[in-house]
Amino acid sequence: MTIALGLGIRAGVDAGWAGPAGDVLYATLMYLAIAFVLPRTGRWQVAAVALSVCWAIELFQTTGIPAQLAQVFPPVRLLLGTTFVPLDLLSYAIGVGLAVVADAVVVRAVTGAAFPRRGSA
Q1: Which of 20, 54, 72, 98 matches a 20 to 30 Å C-alpha distance to 81?
Q2: Residue 85 burial (CB count, 10 A)
Q3: C-alpha–C-alpha distance, residues 60 and 14, integer Å
Q4: How close are the terminal C-alpha atoms of the chain, in Å?
């Protein structure tokens, strides 16, 4: 669902919000992917890794390499982006933060625990 929302965001959202909304969803997807690969890892560790990866990819854009790769193989643009935008760093933090909250809510709903820990159920 996150991938479909991320890819479809440009069609349904004002152009000014499409970029930040896509970045929030990208960070959420990164959180989900890391949580899936490391299921017994605590949510704050998953969040730290997800945010670090998102920020590293954004900073990698300053090298120009992602833009060059996207010229050769356009789908790379979806994974690496092409241009550094400082506001994206904030969007990623918001996306990961929302993912942490959603993770806690879902685990609590499933387990009924007052202070659930991801991976302990």
Answers
A1: 98
A2: 14
A3: 27
A4: 24
